[in-house]
Design the sequence.
């Protein structure tokens, strides 16, 4: 059989990892696939010192790869929205299959890209885009295909999880850990995508679409980052038997779908609470299978390359039998349903609240009275003296589940109290049932 001829665009962390894996494990890959995968061409702005590309055609122009008649499959690893979109659409237009690790591209332009690919009879694969090396796209689209999926939730940003883990375990500074994540090649080109939850929202958008069979709706996802999570919150949560993780949660409800990314308190007994460092974990619950869990490295050159190369192999198999390829979002053409995404104030959850209050008699009664008047039950209270000279205490409360709109008005009332100083910190809780 003729080799599959691959063109790689972008030779950074993931591009370099992909090239090295394709060459380093070439024999293992050939034995599994029954044919060779050959790197036909590389487009890069600069050489990658970790890669020996001698003897391979190179160009500085990524569009050369998309148009080259000797390339069967284009691997897009440049990142970003606009140029990547143009590159992928050009490749499709030239009849090439595409593999990408670019979740931003898929979450925002995926509907258009998949339509163009279907019209041209080619496939676009993106396993590396969600939870790096964990084959979670394959698990949901294929392994769980018999299920009606109700929940997908997990840690889907390695950089953010690395930061929160290092802050909690070693007391390290946020900025210092982020700089290390960047040096290790985990972070996005713009790291605010990691710390503000945009990257996780891209991934959650994709997960929700393949889990529930709905078009990609990134603009409807609720996104909150980890930059406001303090060392105190990590410590108090732990004292109360919880961990704070940056979670993406997509849940089917009777009136629509929840699609939200935010810091979340999880009981420390849950598996996800114990996923640390750059590792990711995704829980998927289906009606037949029940809860399932997928764990592995969410970022980094080799783990991400593992998913890119598996996608190349999958698409290579479909060259012979195009009709057997799994649909891009896992549902047959015309079968996606436009499920409404619920506004975050319609979502119900329990809360962790932290506020600064005067350390005087009767203050606790005033504060709990406000919550009780708003119909919010308290599950646990912790009081920590922080500034004895000024008689200010941190009051930490865990509440029962309430609708977010109800909690918003209670927080406004709390912030209006004379005994409360500054803003109330609120972190949602989830038991991941
Ligand atoms: N780093 C990671 O752990 C993971 C990254 N990804 C995704 O993989 C993609 C690539 O990410 P990284 O490899 O980390 O980024 P990177 O910044 O290390 O590599 C991107 C490379 O593409 C090159 N490039 C960009 N635009 C170009 C153009 N117009 N022409 C030629 N070369 C161009 C850059 O010079 C750079 O070498 C992104 O979409 C990212 O979100 C996905 C999963 C994990
Ligand atoms: N920046 C991302 C890379 C993988 O998707 C992350 O940290 O998870
Ligand atoms: Na993956």
Sequence:
């Amino acid at each position: 059989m003729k080799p599959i001829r691959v063109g790689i665009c972008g030779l950074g962390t993931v591009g370099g990892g992909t090239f090295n894996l394709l060459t380093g494990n070439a024999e293992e890959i050939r034995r599994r696939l029954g044919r060779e995968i050959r790197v036909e061409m590389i487009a890069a702005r600069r050489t990658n010192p970790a890669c020996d590309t001698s003897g391979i055609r190179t160009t500085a122009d990524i569009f050369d790869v998309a148009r080259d008649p000797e390339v069967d499959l284009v691997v897009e690893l440049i990142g970003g929205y606009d140029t990547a979109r143009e590159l992928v659409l050009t490749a499709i237009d030239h009849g090439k299959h595409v593999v990408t690790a670019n979740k931003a591209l898929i979450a925002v332009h995926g509907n258009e890209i998949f339509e163009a690919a279907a019209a041209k009879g080619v496939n676009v694969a993106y396993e590396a885009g969600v939870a790096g090396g964990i084959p979670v796209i394959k698990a949901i689209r294929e392994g769980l295909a018999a299920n009606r999926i109700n929940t997908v939730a997990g840690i889907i940003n390695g950089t953010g999880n690395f930061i929160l883990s290092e802050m909690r375990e070693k007391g390290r500074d946020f900025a210092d850990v982020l700089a290390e994540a960047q040096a290790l090649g985990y972070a996005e080109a713009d790291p605010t995508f990691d710390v503000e939850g945009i990257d996780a929202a891209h991934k959650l958008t994709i997960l929700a679409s393949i889990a529930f069979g709905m078009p990609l709706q990134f603009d409807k996802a609720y996104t909150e980052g980890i930059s406001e999570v303090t060392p105190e919150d990590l410590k108090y949560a732990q004292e109360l038997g919880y961990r704070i993780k940056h979670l993406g949660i997509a849940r089917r409800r009777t009136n629509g779908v929840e699609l939200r990314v935010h810091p979340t308190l999880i009981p420390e007994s849950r598996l996800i609470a114990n996923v640390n460092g750059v590792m990711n974990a995704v829980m998927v619950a289906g009606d037949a299978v029940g809860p399932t869990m997928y764990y592995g490295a969410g970022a980094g050159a080799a783990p991400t390359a593992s998913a890119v190369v598996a996608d190349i192999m999958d698409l290579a198999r479909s060259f012979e039998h195009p009709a057997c390829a799994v649909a891009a979002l896992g549902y047959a053409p015309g079968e996606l349903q436009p499920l409404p995404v619920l506004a975050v104030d319609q979502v119900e959850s329990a809360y962790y609240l932290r506020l600064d209050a005067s350390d005087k008699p009767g203050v606790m009664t005033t504060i709990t009275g406000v919550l009780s008047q708003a119909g919010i039950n308290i599950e646990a209270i912790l009081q920590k003296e922080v500034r004895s000279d000024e008689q200010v205490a941190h009051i930490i409360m865990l509440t029962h589940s309430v609708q977010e709109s109800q909690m918003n008005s209670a927080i406004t009332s709390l912030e209006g109290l004379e005994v409360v100083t500054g803003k109330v910190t609120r972190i949602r809780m989830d038991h991941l049932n």
In short: The domain at 4-132+302-324 is CATH 3.40.50.720 (Rossmann fold). The mean pLDDT is 96. The pocket of sodium ion (ligand 3) is lined by residues 127-128, 130-132, 134-137, 307 (CB under 6 Å).
